[in-house]
Automatic annotation (TrEMBL):
Pfam families: Sigma70_r2 (PF04542). Transmembrane segments: none annotated. This is Sigma-70 region 2. Residues 36-100 form the RNA polymerase sigma-70 region domain. Gene3D superfamilies: 1.10.1740.10. Keywords: Sigma factor, Transcription, Transcription regulation. SUPFAM superfamilies: Sigma2 domain of RNA polymerase sigma factors (SSF88946). GO terms for molecular function: sigma factor activity. The lineage of its organism: Bacteria, Pseudomonadati, Planctomycetota, Planctomycetia, Pirellulales. GO terms for biological process: DNA-templated transcription initiation.
Length: 252
């Protein structure tokens, strides 16, 4: 069996296999979905580098328009094995070439096949205080890594909310959500949770265990969607721990 035959059918592996044939509708849709999920990481990176809100938004629009129009995946170097590394390197090249990004923004008219959610921009600006850049602010690459990890987590939580809402258990998820990032076993806190959900102490433990297992599975699947080689999932998981810190490690 060839290497390609062993690869999982994830979004990024589909794009890589398509290579310079992004006229393939499945591969193109996969790339567009990935861009939609993870553009906030690039936006936060540009803001930390001193770009204004409008300039950063225009650059993101131009970058993805250029990426999708030029089928530049085939030009990527070895970093393309991980979507995170590919986007980071590609954006730096794009921004460094002022003529190219100016042309792409004008050519694309600031439009994409998906919209840039202004609420997510507000959240990114608020999360990192990028409107008040101080001399001791963190390195832009650290912002990029942390925001990328946050995108993975946000995506996972959104899927969980949809799943629990579909089961009529939206309140369950909101009540149990704190247990995803904390191992707090305070009896009084657990008692309040059980009372709110109408569960016994034992049933509550089972509910928390199931939620954590589901969260872990979905989060790791989200990581897998951004790598080409399944063997990279382990190192990407470790990277996620380092980017988000011990808080995330507790729930994985």
């Amino acid at each position: 069996m060839t290497l390609a035959g062993r690869l999982p059918t994830t979004r990024w592996s589909l794009v890589i296999q398509a290579g310079d044939r992004l006229t393939d509708p499945v591969a193109r849709q996969s790339l567009e979905e990935l861009c939609q999920m993870y553009w906030p990481a690039l936006y936060g990176y540009l803001r930390r580098r001193g770009r204004s809100r409008q300039d950063a938004e225009d650059l993101i629009q131009g970058f993805f328009t250029d990426l999708l129009e030029r089928d530049s995946i085939a030009e990527a170097d070895s970093s393309r094995g991980r979507f995170r590394a590919f986007l980071y390197a590609s954006l730096d090249r794009f921004v460094a070439n002022a003529h190219r990004h100016d042309h792409a923004i004008k050519r694309g008219g600031g439009t994409l096949t998906f919209s840039i959610d202004q609420n997510r921009i507000d959240q990114t600006d608020s999360r990192y205080g990028v409107d008040q850049i101080a001399a001791d602010d963190e390195d832009p690459t650290v912002t990029f890594d942390r925001q990328w990890a946050q995108c993975l987590i946000d995506q996972t939580l959104q899927e969980l909310r949809q799943e629990y809402a579909g089961q009529g258990k939206a309140d369950w998820l909101e009540t149990l959500m704190p247990t995803l990032i904390s191992n707090d076993s305070d009896p009084k806190s657990r008692e309040q949770m059980a009372k709110r959900l109408g569960l016994s102490a034992t049933a509550l433990k089972v509910a928390i265990h199931r939620l954590r297992a589901c969260y872990r599975t979905r989060l790791l699947n989200a990581v897998a969607q951004t790598v080409d080689d399944p063997g990279d999932c382990g190192s990407e998981r470790q990277w996620l721990f380092e980017a988000m810190g011990k808080k995330t490690r507790k729930s994985l």
